[in-house]
């Protein structure tokens, strides 16, 4: 990883950059675990409502099964040169019970409404409790920009 000449961002800048990415990016890596079956990681589309990440996946998926057994999850945006990791607890909403504003935002962003599908889908909501963001070694110190659900910037 190239770190020469990299300028270390302040917490407020990291928070601003992270919020911008959460509002514009499409994909997030979702890491879950099941007490008997172990870890599972999958990329999913997501939308950000300003407070929570909303994803959608098949009702019988490994992700949904794991979250129902162990709601603690970790999410990661896909750029390894501009790391953003979120931790929180996931909550499942069957497609017929999801809050309308969350489902509509997801539909607008992706042009796809899982509620209209024949198969059952589950919306997964994660309110971050911890967020870490860094670009290379110079930003490792101070990488926690949210702790206990409160932004530090």
Automatic annotation (TrEMBL):
Q: What is the lineage of its organism?
A: Bacteria, Bacillati, Actinomycetota, Actinomycetes, Kitasatosporales
Q: Name one Pfam family in it.
A: PNPOx_N
Domain Pyridoxamine 5'-phosphate oxidase N-terminal, residue spans: 24-134
Q: What's in the keyword line of the UniProt record? A: Oxidoreductase
A molecular function annotated in GO for this UniProt entry is: oxidoreductase activity, acting on the CH-CH group of donors
Name the GO cellular-component terms. cytosol
Q: Which SUPFAM superfamilies match?
A: FMN-binding split barrel
| Xref: InterPro entries | F420H2_bilvrd_red/Heme_oxyg, Pyridox_Oxase_N, Split_barrel_FMN-bd
**The UniProt record lists the keyword Oxidoreductase:** yes
Question: PANTHER family in the record, alphabetically?
Answer: HEME OXYGENASE HI_0854-RELATED
On whether Transmembrane helix is a keyword of this UniProt record, the answer is no
Organism, by scientific name, is Streptomyces misionensis
Protein name per the record: Pyridoxamine 5'-phosphate oxidase
């Amino acid at each position: 990883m190239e770190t020469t000449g990299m300028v270390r961002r302040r917490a407020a800048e990291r928070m601003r950059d992270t919020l911008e990415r959460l509002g514009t990016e499409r994909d997030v890596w979702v890491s879950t675990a099941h007490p008997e079956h172990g870890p599972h990681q999958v990329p999913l589309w997501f939308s950000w409502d300003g407070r929570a990440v909303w994803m959608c996946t098949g009702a019988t998926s490994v992700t949904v099964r794991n979250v129902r057994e162990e709601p603690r999850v970790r999410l990661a945006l896909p750029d390894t040169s501009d790391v953003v990791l979120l931790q929180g607890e996931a909550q499942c909403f069957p497609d017929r019970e999801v809050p309308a504003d969350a489902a509509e935002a997801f539909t607008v962003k992706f042009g796809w409404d899982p509620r209209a599908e024949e198969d059952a889908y589950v919306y997964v909501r994660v309110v971050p409790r911890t967020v870490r963001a860094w670009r290379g070694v110079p930003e490792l110190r101070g990488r926690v920009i949210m702790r206990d659900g409160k932004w530090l910037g």
